Amino acid sequence: AALTIDRSRLVLNEGDKSVSVGVANRNTQDPYLVQVWMENEQEKKITGPLMIVPPLQRIEPDGKTLVRVQALPDITSLPKDRESVFWFNLREIPPRNEKANVLTLVMQTRLKVFYRPKSLVISPTADTVPGAGTLTLSRKGTAIVVNNPTPYHFSFVELRNGVRGNRIEGFDPSMVAPGSSLKLNVPASSIGNSPTLVFVNDYGSQRLLPFTCTGNTCKAGKPENPIAE
Predict the structure, then answer these.
(1) What CATH architecture applies to the domain 3-120?
(2) Tell me: the pLDDT tens digits for 87-121?
(3) What pTM value is reported for the model?
(4) Which of 41, 71, 141, 227 is the most buried (most CB within 10 A)?
(5) Do 72 and 24 form a contact (C-beta atoms < 8 A)?
(6) Mind listing the pLDDT tens digit for each residue in 20-53?
(7) Residue 229 pLDDT more than 60?
(8) Cα separation, 108 vs 33, whole angstroms
(9) Which of 173, 21, 9 shows the shortest CA–CA distance to 86?
(10) How far apart are CA 198 and CA 134, in angstroms?
(11) What class has domain 132-219?
(12) Are 139 and 35 in contact (CB under 8 A)?
């Protein structure tokens, strides 16, 4: 991709009018157009309660620009007791190629945008997500279910057998919504008594969440930094 974004996720707290996103054109020869839009959790294009401005602009070769995710007045209609999630979309539009028999690929980038009411604002110095230790895993027949009692979304990118164990093959990155449960796509037989889920914090960094199993229930422990491995 010629266009790159300066972060991997966005957080908009209640009371913030907007949050800016830096976009850079890494191509040193050609200008590109930047097209942006917002989608809801169901991945349908929306015009509120969040919008991105400007929706279309040009970036010169090796240039940089900003786009803003802006809160609209109907942002007050969102839940006050849990986080809401949206999708930020950016599509790069390359210049027309005058050469014959040239294939041009149009790249699109998607980021999660989390809106947090005042009661759920997380300190910028926090390294994890509050309540991570209250998550549980349940074995239900041949399935594994992750239960999230917190008001936050958790995005999992990896499942391991133990903190320093092997990655379980076939696990697909998954996000569990606040107060919800989610069936993982790997069988219960693939984990032992000390599975570890790897989740992503506000800064896009990975954190380990170890579990200890007793019978068919696994309780989470304290999140760990992978660097400590």
Answers:
(1) Sandwich (2.60)
(2) 999 999 998 877 777 777 788 999 999 999 999 99
(3) 0.91
(4) 71
(5) no
(6) 999 999 999 999 999 999 999 999 999 999 999 9
(7) no
(8) 12
(9) 9
(10) 15
(11) mainly beta
(12) no
Distance CA 223, CA 170 (A): 23
Residues carrying CATH 2.60.40.10, the chain: 3-120, 132-219
DSSP state of 141: T
User: Are 114 and 11 spatial neighbours (Cβ–Cβ below 8 Å)?
Assistant: yes
Burial of 197 (0-12, 13-18, 19+ CB in 10 A): buried
First to last CA, the chain: 33
In the chain, the amino acid numbered 86 is F
15 CB neighbour count, 10 Å cutoff:
10
Q: Give me the sign of the Cα torsion angle 198, 199, 204, 205.
A: negative
Q: Say what the pLDDT of residue 224 is.
A: 87
Q: What is the pLDDT of residues 158-205, one digit of tens each?
A: 999 887 878 899 899 999 999 999 999 999 888 888 999 999 999 999
Q: Is 120 helix (H, G, I), strand (E, B) or coil?
A: helix
Tokens of 2: 């010629």
Q: Which two tokens stand for residue 195?
A: 């599975």
Average pLDDT over residues 59-66: 96
CA distance linking residue 58 with residue 223, whole number of Å:
42
Question: Quick check: 184 and 146 in contact, CB under 8 A?
Answer: yes
